[in-house]
Design a protein that fits this description.
Elements: E1 2-6, H1 20-31, E2 35-41, E3 53-58, H2 69-75, H3 83-97, E4 101-105, H4 107-117, E5 122-126, H5 129-136, E6 150-154, H6 157-165, E7 172-173, H7 180-188, E8 199-203, H8 213-222, E9 225-229, H9 235-244, E10 249-253, H10 257-265, E11 269-274, H11 282-289, E12 294-298
């Protein structure tokens, strides 16, 4: 079984936290005996490799990468033309490797491109940001490809319900796999924080939609140190707000997935600010697997 994975996010040396859950999914498929070829958007540094996985850098005119395609295109509108070389590269991979199926992460643009580039079975995985985009568009649900050999997968029941409300294909629900070995290593070697306890950790992309300032509110009310693991366009504003409110704050920037897990393991509490309708993201499931207290804050 040859599986081509189409993704707009994949870990790289200079952006190690991007697409770690996509890599975990690819590794799980490889462990089941599938031959995995990943079409990873080209970046400034080397892509992360994994046993049983062939990673091919594909051009995208810097459209993809942290903090996300939408924000990158908004900052430099001409980047949207990166979709053209990206599609052509994926089409070439289809012709060269003749995969048995394609797995595309994110409905837009991955699912749309995969369904156009490949006539065989396509599995489209919805993660959240793509669903928010469809909800913001008139008749957004109609963008989901409708073919007998196209399946739609939602990583949580909450996302599945939102997709059904949009009138898409009826999605199957299957969470992204966790890296059990990395979780066990983090459990055995948790990060040691020297700041004042309790340590409250938020891990993920620092974006406005998450309203991470709610974690600042919680830390202000209960005390302790807030640790932001990850990066994004809201970082400077969050640092400024914490400073104004005299909240002890540590920021790590983008770190390797293994280091992020160690920080989760060393926390007293993991705070997960979620958007409306968002299911349990990977970081919540990882923290619970580590045995750390998790507090979910919903918009």
């Amino acid at each position: 079984m040859v599986t081509l994975v189409v993704t707009s996010s994949w870990p790289r040396a200079d952006d190690p936290i991007a697409g770690t859950f996509v890599r975990a999914d690819a590794r799980a498929r490889a462990a089941r005996g599938e031959r995995i070829i990943v079409a990873a958007p080209r970046g400034a540094s080397e892509a992360t490799r994994a046993p049983g996985i062939t990673v091919v850098d594909v051009p995208c005119a810097e459209l993809f990468g942290t903090p996300g395609a939408a924000l990158r295109a908004r900052a430099h509108p001409l980047r949207i033309y990166g979709l053209l070389p990206w599609y052509r590269a994926i089409r070439r991979l289809v012709l060269e490797h003749t995969p048995d199926r394609v797995v595309a992460h994110w409905i837009v643009p991955g699912g749309l491109v995969a369904a156009r580039a490949f006539d065989g079975p396509v599995e489209i995985v919805a993660h959240g940001a793509d669903v928010r985009l469809l909800e913001a568009l008139p008749f957004g649900g109609r963008l989901v490809p409708r073919r007998a050999n196209v399946t739609l997968r939602a990583v949580s029941e909450g996302l599945a319900a939102r997709l059904r409300a949009l009138g898409t294909l009826d999605p199957i629900v299957e969470p992204m796999p966790l890296d059990d070995d990395a979780i066990e290593r983090a459990r055995q070697r948790p990060f040691t924080f020297t700041a004042g306890r309790p340590i409250r950790v938020v891990a993920g992309r620092l974006i406005a939609a998450k309203r991470i300032e709610r974690a600042i509110d919680r830390t202000a009310a209960l005390g302790g140190t807030l640790v932001l693991v990850g990066d994004g366009p809201s970082r400077a504003a969050l640092v400024a707000e914490a400073g104004q409110r005299r909240i002890p704050l540590l920021t790590t920037g983008a770190v390797r997935h293994e280091d992020a897990l160690r920080m989760l393991a060393g926390a007293d509490e993991v705070i997960a600010p979620l958007s409306v309708g968002e299911g349990a993201p990977t970081v919540v499931r990882e923290a619970r697997a580590l045995g750390v207290k998790v507090t979910v804050l919903r918009s």
